[in-house]
UniProtKB/TrEMBL annotation, chain A:
One of its GO terms (molecular function) is deoxyribose-phosphate aldolase activity. Its EC number is 4.1.2.4. This is deoxyribose-phosphate aldolase. GO terms for biological process: carbohydrate catabolic process; deoxyribonucleotide catabolic process; deoxyribose phosphate catabolic process. It comes from the Eukaryota. Keywords: Lyase, Schiff base. One of its GO terms (cellular component) is cytoplasm. It catalyses: 2-deoxy-D-ribose 5-phosphate = D-glyceraldehyde 3-phosphate + acetaldehyde. Belongs to the DeoC/FbaB aldolase family. DeoC type 2 subfamily.
From TrEMBL, chain B:
The active site is at 289. Pfam families: Aldedh. Signal peptide: none annotated. This is Aldh16a1. The keyword Iron does not apply. Belongs to the aldehyde dehydrogenase family. Residues 68-507, 576-804 form the Aldehyde dehydrogenase domain. It comes from Bugula neritina (Brown bryozoan).
Length: 274, 857
């Protein structure tokens, strides 16, 4: 494994003459989900992976210790115990990737989780110097930069923003906060992971990717996983380099696993709410 | 599982088999994140095959027809070698029966109200849609292509085609008011898109009121048979669509059947040429959609990552068994290494395997013989020292498969660069400039398709225009839609499948009946032989013709030369022929053209063609008006000359001159009114249909109406930017020759109009034998028509012949109009996707794959 991205000196040529053809990107994104799919136990394994990559998030004005605590417990136990048992994956100790809350709630999270998972600090992206300063401020903590891709205007800008953040030392690049009107969509994700691939090729640093918002179904989660596998390779299929910012997704994942184990469709109320 | 990378010239390493993978626990897979098998169920197809006792006959006159004692084909699933069923090897009496049924059905089907035909075709679309899954699975099992493609491309395109042509059926009276059905269509289609390509013939044929006898490829007959059954279910009257199965020779029987009025063929250039010869001189129409070696051009201004995926769609779609496959990758040298690296990386996670498995990029090759042929090509490249890169993430150990292959370090002289491989094999060549890219793209005998990858719109459009091919995609490849015609230039054939342009292939002008010439055998080796003229002292009229001088003073001799390259030229062999008056007196001498004169004229025509094509249409119209003006000024002189040659009355001749002037005005009007249209395809962007010139056209004019016939053929050709080598009436050429002085003084660039005189058949022979003439029009004898059609097969040039029948040139219905526009143009469709802004509007419709979201029922 390569070490953590330290960033590189500003190099304008890396973002000059960036060409991204939106129609062609969409055409590829359209077929990501039709060229690959997983069934049966492969599907079960992939869904468990999705669960392990989920960042459970609450960024609401009315957050209190009550719902934050509930979220933390769910993150530690994302899948019903009987399903974990039946799937034979108890030894994997699958938990969600992280819990994301407002900074003021971090203490409560720490209290709720004996070992702290929430060491990633999301940063709204800016220009190179700004991101670089933030990277310094983060110290040992990992830095996720959120591109707010819905506001980027063009795919070339999405690519450039991704590259600037990585040059400035981002550990993760993230599509959006997940709370905006524009959600994570595959074409945008595709452009971002292509930027990650290019950055890796140039520097040897592996930067993580996190789509956030709008990913609700287990099937979609598998498509995002297969995009990572196809475009970046198997090494990116770990919570270290891939996170799904999607809270309601976990429920659907659990339901699909239930169906895999019992062959019946479950009711929502049969799963612990987060 | 890490991707396996095959090194240079090695076969792909094989991943663990499915059986081995299945011992993995969920925890193991959690770690490996491998894809497991994801097969589409085949139980409904199996049940359908069982219903038919796994032995299929023909489908004729609305029902299965299973004559006893026929040999059969064993139909196998190429992906696993398992026998699915048998199909019948038809014999001549089966063709007889099917054509008879179609002929009978035509009498009623062609007379149905357009709305009623529209309802029928609409019903077919609905029924295919309802059985879409069955069709998709069957096609995948029969052909070996992936179910993903049949589900997302083949079958949705089929459905879309029927809907589109249901519309044309409805509008046939208004939009095609000057046209009618031809009769019985003999359709012969290949195995690469069995159902899709047959639909491209069937839908427009039915829309125009024809009936069809179809012969699918012997490897892949099942979807055609299922379609016939589904059409019957949909209520299509018996006999309107018939399917007969059998060998290639059996297909020839169908094409040769006297009651088949038109042959519609998609397949190899070799077979296309055979069919052209077989039908020569019969009066049948024919359209040929043949092979290709289509360029995929990547400029350094392209989105390279997207272009890599474009390559996947271009050459590894349907295992590369696509006539429009982007099999010749041209990459600008500044990004060549980078692009090839990206492409190689892409192949490391490319998946080859079971056709019904929904995780595969590529399925099986249709048949072992085809696989062997592909391998032979690749071996030839290895032998030449080329670099052969083959890699994939998985590759089956059994079944008829071939890995995706990239060949580099090859040049234009290599067989793999020149020939159509028809498999998953891509050759890559670097280029320096756009000009060089275009030259490399056009350095082929084919001209079916091509794609241009750049973000520079000006560059994209110019290159798209300069590539000589029928379909050009900008930043995409292999997009198809019913609303845009598909078909080739050069040896990729002629005629279009799809769009309004596709309707003309299944229609003849209302005034016309299908010609049924006697079609007598001719000696091809002797045709067109000529013996040059000798002195005609006994019948000479020359000294007194233009006299007006005092008695006894001879007129100044006037001997016509040829006119080509903008100047008068002497005949190569300096022989002349005497042109006689209606009373048999020699009135002038004209040059006797031979093959060298043809050679010279064609050469200058090609020199003029690019510049003439770039002239503004306005300018071309002005030249027509100038011709009209000059004929008007010399109206009486032209009429007198006509009268002297033909012996017709002065009034009749004056009328011919007037009509010629009118015709010039008619075509001047069309100079800027037939450029093309925007096609309403499913693409979000512009699909632009351009009516491009055909190129250099050889024209042999009729003897009736020496001036009007000449003008009626010349004018449409040149206003639509073609260059011509034109031979006026053999017996009355003087009126046309009188025009060369007008050409000389006009703005018309030298080489656009080239006039040769002499023996019609002799010149026809050398024009049609010339490999660099794109179309030959022959208005002469039955035998000459047959000769032209037969010999044109050699390089698949277009032809337009009269089978010895005259037409009423004075009648606008016959002497001008859409038929002429069809003959002077060839359709190019340029697909230009658009969209740049985020956030993405999900209502925009993009590429065909998975954007066909039809709502069922």
């Amino acid at each position: 494994m390569s070490e953590r991205n330290t960033g590189v000196n500003w190099n304008e040529s890396w973002i000059k003459d960036v060409k991204v053809n939106l129609s062609a990107v969409k055409a590829r994104a359209d077929t990501l989900g039709t060229r690959r799919c997983v069934k049966k136990k492969w599907q079960a394994a992939w869904l468990l992976k999705a669960a392990a990559c989920i960042d459970l998030t609450t960024l609401a004005g009315d957050d209190t210790v009550v719902n934050v605590q509930r979220l933390c417990y769910k993150a530690k136990n994302p899948i019903r115990a009987d399903l974990v048992e039946a799937l034979g994956v108890k030894q994997l100790g699958i938990t969600c990737g992280a819990v994301c809350v407002y900074p003021s709630r971090v203490g409560e999270v720490k209290q709720s989780l004996k070992e702290c998972g929430g060491s990633a600090i999301p940063i709204a992206s800016g220009i190179y110097e700004e991101v670089q300063q933030m990277r310094e401020a983060c110290g040992e903590a990992h830095m996720k930069t959120i591109l707010a891709t819905g506001e980027c205007g063009t795919m070339a800008n999405v690519y450039k923003a991704s590259m600037v953040c990585m040059m400035a030392g981002a550990d993760f690049i993230k599509t959006s906060t997940g709370k905006e009107g524009v959600n994570a969509i595959l074409p945008v994700g595709l452009v971002m992971v292509r930027a990650i691939r290019e950055y890796y090729k140039r520097t040897g640093y592996k930067v993580g990717f996190k789509p956030a918002g709008g990913i609700r179904s287990a099937k979609e989660a598998c498509v995002w996983l297969s995009m990572m596998k196809e475009e970046l390779g198997d090494e990116w299929l770990t919570p270290k380099l891939f996170r799904l910012g999607a809270s309601s997704l976990l429920l659907d994942v659990e339901r699909q696993l239930y169906h895999y184990v019992y062959g019946r469709y479950a009711a929502t109320h049969e799963f612990a709410m987060s | 599982m890490a991707a396996t990378t095959g090194a240079t010239s090695s076969a792909p390493s094989q991943s663990a088999t499915v059986a081995a993978e299945s011992t993995e626990s969920i925890a193991d897979i959690f770690a490996s994140m491998s894809y497991g098998p994801a097969p589409e169920a085949d139980n409904v197809v199996q049940a359908w095959l069982e219903d038919k006792k796994r032995a299929f006959g023909h489908f004729i006159d609305g029902k299965y027809h299973q004559p006893a004692g026929r040999k059969v084909y064993e139909v196998k699933n190429p992906a696993n070698g398992k026998v699915l069923c048998t199909t019948m090897r038809g014999e001549s009496e089966d063709v007889e029966l099917a054509v008879k049924a179609a002929r009978k059905a035509h009498t009623t089907w062609s007379k149905l109200a357009p709305h009623v035909r529209a309802r029928h075709i609409y019903s077919i679309a609905r029924h295919v849609q309802k059985h879409a899954r069955l069709f998709s699975v069957l096609e995948s099992m029969d052909n070996g292509k992936t179910f993903r493609e049949t589900r997302d491309a083949d079958i949705p395109i089929v459905v879309r085609h029927f809907y589109h042509y249901a519309g044309w059926a409805q509008l046939s009276d208004t939009e095609m008011s000057n046209w009618k059905s031809i009769g019985v269509i003999g359709g012969i289609v290949p195995w690469n898109f069995p159902l899709m390509l047959l639909t491209w013939k069937l839908a427009p044929a039915l829309a125009m009121g024809n009936t069809v006898v179809l012969k699918p490829a012997s490897y892949t007959s099942l979807s055609a048979i299922l379609l016939a059954e589904v059409c019957a279910e949909a209520g299509l009257p018996p006999g309107v669509f018939n399917v007969v199965t059998g060998s290639g020779a059996f297909g020839s029987m169908l094409a040769a059947h006297p009651d088949v009025d038109k042959v519609a063929f998609t397949g190899s250039t070799l077979v296309g040429q055979k069919l052209r010869k077989l039908t020569a001189g019969t009066g049948k129409k024919i359209s040929l959609e043949l092979g290709g070696k289509s360029p995929f051009i990547v400029f350094d201004s392209a989105d390279l990552d997207s272009a890599v995926e474009g390559v996947v769609n271009a050459i590894w779609f349907n295992q590369g068994q696509v006539c429009s496959a982007g099999s010749k990758l041209l990459v600008q040298e500044t990004v060549y290494d980078k692009f090839i690296d990206k492409l190689k990386e892409r192949l490391t996670h490319f998946r080859v395997g079971s056709s019904l498995d929904k995780t595969m990029d590529m399925g099986a090759i249709v048949d072992e013989s085809q696989r062997a042929s592909v391998e032979e090509f690749v071996q030839s490249a290895r032998d030449e020292g080329a670099e052969v890169y083959q890699a994939s993430a998985c590759f089956p150990s059994a079944g008829c498969f071939y890995p995706p292959t990239l060949i580099t370090k090859v040049q234009t002289v290599s067989k793999v660069v020149q020939e159509e491989i028809f498999g998953p094999v891509l050759v890559a060549l670097p280029f320096r400039t756009a000009k060089e890219a275009v030259s490399l793209a056009n350095n082929t005998r084919y001209g079916l398709a091509g794609s241009v990858w750049t973000e520079n719109v000006s560059l994209a459009l110019e290159v798209a225009l300069l590539i000589k091919a029928g379909a050009i995609w900008v930043n995409a490849h292999n997009l198809f839609d019913a609303a845009a015609g598909f078909g080739g230039y050069k040896e990729s054939g002629f005629g279009r499948d799809g769009g309004k342009e596709g309707l003309y292939e299944y229609a003849i002008p209302r005034w016309e009946e299908r010609p049924r010439p006697a079609n007598e055998d001719i000696d091809y080796s002797k045709f067109g032989a000529t013996l040059q003229g000798r002195p005609t002292y006994a019948d000479n009229l020359l000294p007194v013709l233009e006299g007006g001088s005092a008695a006894g003073v001879p007129a100044i001799d006037h001997t016509y030369k040829f006119y080509y390259g903008g100047a008068q030229k002497r005949p190569d062999a300096t022989y002349v022929r005497a042109i006689k008056t209606s009373e048999g007196k020699a009135m002038a001498h004209v040059g006797e053209g031979n093959r060298k004169d043809v050679r010279n004229a064609v050469e200058v025509a090609h020199k003029a063609a690019p510049g003439w094509g770039k002239r503004a249409a306005y300018n071309r119209a002005q030249i027509m008006y100038y011709l009209a003006e000059n004929i008007e000024l010399r109206r009486q002189e032209f009429a007198d000359r006509l009268s002297l040659q033909t012996g017709r009355t002065a009034d009749s001749c004056l009328n011919e001159v007037s009509l010629s002037i009118q015709r010039l005005f008619y075509w001047a009007a069309y100079a800027d009114k037939y450029g093309g249209t925007v096609q309403e395809t499913t693409l979000y962007g512009a699909t632009v249909k351009i009516h491009e010139p055909v190129g250099v056209i050889g024209i042999l004019c009729p003897d009736e109406y020496p001036l009007l016939g000449f003008v009626s053929l010349l004018a449409p050709a040149i206003v639509r930017a073609n260059c011509v080598v034109i031979v006026p009436s053999e017996i009355h050429p003087l009126s046309a020759l009188d025009l060369y002085q007008v050409f000389e003084t006009s703005d018309i660039p030298g080489g656009v109009v080239n006039i040769l005189t002499g023996s019609k058949d002799h010149l026809a022979k050398y024009l049609v034998e010339h490999q660099d003439i794109q179309s030959v029009w022959y208005f002469g004898s039955e035998a000459g028509s047959k000769y032209v059609e037969y010999v044109s097969a050699e390089n698949v040039k277009r032809t337009w012949v009269n089978y010895g029948l005259s037409r009423k040139w004075e009648d606008p219905e016959q002497g001008e109009g859409e038929e002429f526009l069809y003959q002077v143009t060839q359709v190019k469709n340029i697909w230009i996707p658009m969209e740049t802004s985020l956030p993405i509007d999900n209502n925009t419709v993009g590429h065909f794959s998975c954007r066909f979201c039809f709502v069922l029922y």
